[in-house]
Amino acid sequence: MTLRLPSLLLAGLLLAAAPAATAQQRRPPAVKATQAKNAVAAIRESDLKRDLFALGGDKYRGREGGTLDELRASAWLAEQMRAIGAEPAGDNGTYFQFFELRRTRLTPASTLTIGSHALRPGHDAVVVAPTNAHFTAKLVFVGTGTPAELAKAKIKGKAVAVQLSGAPTDGISYRRYLFGKLREQAAELVKAGAVAVVFVSDKPAQAVYDHWSHIFERGRYGLPADESVKIVGDQVPVAWLPMSAAEWIGQGGQQFSTDLKAESFTYPSVNIVARIPGTDGQLKKENVLFSTHQDHDGVRAAVAGDSIYNGADDNATGCVALLALMRAFKQQPAKRTALFVYHGAEERGLLGSRYFSYQPTVPKTSIVAVLNAEMMGRNAPDSAALLGSTPPHLNSSDLVQTALAANQAGPQFKLDTEWDKATHPEGWYFRSDHLPYARLGIPAIMYTSLLHADYHTPLDEPARIDYAKLLRMTQWMYLTGWAVANRPAPPAREPGFRLER
Length: 501
Prior knowledge:
The chain is an alpha/beta fold. Helix content is 29%, strand content 22%.
């Protein structure tokens, strides 16, 4: 089914140069803080803190992409833009660019039975991907799934139950290791002839199950044209059970019976777009794009009695930073236009940035650089990272050198370069809104203070933000953006740029 915006809410929302030399030939001049000192003073810690408590508190219930909570938070952000004096730059003279999400999930009536145990998907068990499946098969338990256990069980044509086990050896977080194991071991078992796969948590896996299994309840999301989110037909069902199932899963002679049905529907999300026009007659036609995302995870399974995943660092910090940048550029406009884009549904797979990068509200060729704000208020006060600064993620040495000069002129963070490497197990470069622009060849970098223990939990709350650090991160972005917006030529693009995946 298609969910429509209530008409009153929708009405309210609608109102509301010459090529540069390569970096190897010439480095951009150092950024001088005095060039923009008046505008830097417009970036205030008190504003950041006030705005973050307003946006990242419980009022907007975690701003889950594609929900009324995301839309209400987006309307609040647009009102702040209007109050600052930033011009609407969305569709039809508004601050908004609406787009549709497609969601595919299991129907609430779907069932899963093992022996005498009736399991409700999303409650007593997790079904990793929505699928249509209606059959009964013999269940065999194969321990941890060693080759010897598989050979003995003769799994072809059977449902296979396997104990999760093992630990990462390459520095990756256990959560990411476990999700990879669910995917990879299931594929191996299906290739060997299994008609269904059932994973059973051990003690370490149970901790991940308790905190992260909720992400499978929503199903899969994408833009309507994405093949991956259409109803997936007769894909082999893969289930994940809690540790308590270990008491009975190995009993002989059990049948696996499933009646799963997938459904697909669309509903709206939104990008929020504003600009501060440039002052130069020609350069104002070019845009320096400041990027972030307004959504987070919404209301989910409670952890220690708290069910609101506020996303204060991820990514209310980026949201309030862009408001502060607007105030600075409004006070002292640059030669180029400063374009501010809040991307909806980032947590659903960078959907807002994918949509805007292919259907921008300004000419695509006018976007000379993208400066993306993603989680900027936690971890050590003197450390940060600039993603897009290390090959193969480096697509503009020119832009990176400008950002590094701005860091030296401003906050002087010690920069962590490990998270930007292609070998880093978290793949952090590929998980934020600069990525769709980089894939188009537009110079793009990401400002971040990296992950922390409260990432995607209800503990990511406004009271835990380091506001002094957030101020310095915002100033760093501003000094970079100011330099890019005022230089004679746009940042040069890296010849032969190509991402590793």
